[in-house]
Write a structure and sequence with these properties.
Number of helices: 10
Number of domains: 3
Largest sheet: 5 strands, mixed
Order of helices and strands: EEEEEHEEHEEEEHEHHEHHHHEEHEE
Strand order of the largest sheet: 3-2-1-4-8
CATH architecture of the largest domain: 2-Layer Sandwich
CATH topology of the largest domain: Nucleotidyltransferase, domain 5
Shape: rod-shaped
Number of strands: 17
Helix content: 25-40%
Distance between the termini: 89 Å
Strand content: 25-35%
Structural class: alpha+beta
């Protein structure tokens, strides 16, 4: 889908949310809205639904695990992080991202009961998200600059190296002090630049904190956002997705109907090709039918040319066999003699090239042919080829010009007759 509806869920136990529609580049397709979660279902039709889950409920970390992927990786992550987590891993849900250049796997961790509650809220509202991310993944990192997004209930700090920290708004001042101190104590020579986003209402109580930190930073840019942080979060998550939480037990189970929008043009094209192939086959059948009728007419004409006394025939092969048998009973070499002579003549005609048999007449011991040849030399080659076969003698009875071709009559008899 080219359009997405990004929905930010408010922390439990609230059943409200805010949402905004964006295109594949992150451009807004309308103003943000908020309200009961089921109200978002009315604008989700025809759009891919992306859920942003509260940052305070999701832990972002990384793990150094062997080169595993898919289900195997999800099975290994709890054991790799067990010593770093305060809670029992059996009650936690793990989702893995793309392995970084250093070989570490970014991981998102959330309580199973919390994840189940989120998915239940979405389902009850009639929403089936294609992807679900922690909202901290939507903040995004910038080179040499840390990004801070302040909202009414939480704040997310994304360092320039991609490290993400989420705290409640009351702990933001302490977070800034700790982050600046750590950056100054580290060996990194990068300047301390900070960009802050938030609504005027969320930023105003922190005016003193901005002034206190400004002297410790290379630069501090505080930007008030009239429509809140959601438009920026939506644009970032559409263009630079984070760790999809819909993995493992919470992976989206889809039916064939859900794939129809993506495949409908392919199916339509396939159906068109099938109709076209059927039409071509029908045309071929009609052409073959006409060719068969023409061949039957040619066989009938040739048969009556050889046997002028024959009436209508239903099966030329059967009728020819019967007549050859009667000829054999009347004398001569019988049907086998005729077939032997015919085989030799057929080989000679093919060898000559460009010769067409227009008529033949057979009586015991003698076969007469009417041939259309490109020249007299072709008739002569047939005569020589038949004579070389042994036991037969061929004589050219006549050869008359017919345009650029020659109509010839050839008589073939047993040698010695």
């Amino acid at each position: 889908m080219s359009e997405s509806l990004v929905i930010r869920l408010d922390p439990a136990p609230q059943v409200t949310a805010s949402w905004v529609a964006v295109d594949q580049t992150g451009a807004l397709l309308g103003a943000p809205d908020s309200g009961p979660l089921d109200a978002a279902a009315g604008v989700a039709t025809g759009r891919q639904v992306i859920a942003l889950l509260p940052a305070l409920d999701v832990l972002r970390t990384s793990a150094d695990v062997p080169m595993k992927t898919g289900g195997r990786l999800l099975q290994v992550l709890p054991f790799a992080l067990e010593d770093h987590l305060a809670e029992d891993v059996d009650g936690l849900h793990f989702a893995a991202g793309t392995r970084d250049p250093q070989g570490r796997v970014p991981v998102a961790v959330v309580r199973r009961e919390t994840m189940a509650a989120w998915t239940r809220r979405l389902t009850e509202a009639g929403l089936a998200p294609a992807r679900a991310y922690c909202e901290s993944d939507a903040v995004g990192a910038m080179p040499n600059t840390a990004t801070l997004v302040v909202q009414d209930d939480s704040a997310v700090l994304a360092a320039a190296d991609g490290t993400v920290t989420a705290v409640d708004s009351t702990s933001l001042d302490a977070l800034l002090d700790l982050w600046v101190t750590q950056q100054r104590d580290s060996d990194a020579a990068d300047p301390l630049n900070l960009v802050v986003y938030g609504t005027s209402a969320a930023l105003a109580p922190l005016a003193s904190a901005w002034e206190r930190q400004r002297a410790r930073l290379e630069s501090l840019d505080v930007r008030a956002m009239s429509e809140g942080a959601l438009p920026r979060l939506a644009a970032q998550i559409v263009t630079s997705p984070g760790i999809d939480l819909l993995q493992g037990d919470f992976a989206r189970r889809v039916g064939l109907a859900s794939h129809w929008p993506a495949w409908r043009w392919s199916v339509a094209l396939l159906a068109s090709l099938l109709v076209l192939a059927l039409g071509v086959n029908l045309l071929d059948l009609r052409r073959l039918g006409r060719e068969e009728a023409a061949l039957d007419a040619a066989i009938d004409k040739a048969f009556h040319y050889v046997f002028p006394d024959a009436g209508p025939i239903a099966d030329a092969r059967t009728e020819l066999s019967a007549r050859l048998q009667r000829l054999g009973q009347q004398g001569g070499g019988g049907p086998r003699e005729f077939l032997d002579v015919l085989r030799v003549v057929g080989q000679a005609v093919r060898t000559a090239g460009g010769v067409r048999v227009e008529g033949l007449s057979y009586r015991p011991g003698t076969l007469e042919l009417q041939l259309r040849a490109p020249n007299v030399e072709a008739l002569d080659r047939i005569q020589q080829t038949v004579g070389q076969a042994g036991g037969l003698r061929a004589q050219i009875q006549s050869a008359n010009s017919a345009g650029d071709q020659v109509i010839g009559r050839l008589q073939i008899t047993r040698a010695g007759r």
